[in-house]
Amino acid sequence: MAQEKEKVNYVLAIRSFFGEVYEESKKIAWPNTETMVQSTSIVVAVIIVLSVFMMAADFGLNYVIKIIE
Question: In angstroms, rounded to a whole number, what is the distance separating the alpha carbons of residues 16 and 20?
């Protein structure tokens, strides 16, 4: 005899999934405001420094290429 496939109730499966997501989200240790501000400040500072470095490298290489031509 052929085995019958188990029917899946997708509505219940989706509801169960989001219920589990909600329960897991309660366990998250969110950072406080001071930590978020410090972390964001560091990220913005690093982005600015790297942008200035890339800009200087671009201008420098363009200058070198113009001299070589």
Answer: 6
Does 6 or 30 have the greater pLDDT score?
30
CB of 31 closer than 8 Å to CB of 39: yes
Asked whether the beta carbons of 10 and 2 are under 8 A apart, the reply is no
Q: Cα–Cα distance between 37 and 47 in angstroms, integer?
A: 15
**How far apart, in whole angstroms, are the C-alpha atoms of residue 30 and residue 33?**
9
Can you spell out the DSSP letters for 4-45?
PPPP--HHHHHHHHHHHHHHHHTT-----HHHHHHHHHHHHH
Token pair, residue 59, equals 């201008």
pLDDT tens for 32-55 read 999 999 999 999 999 999 999 999
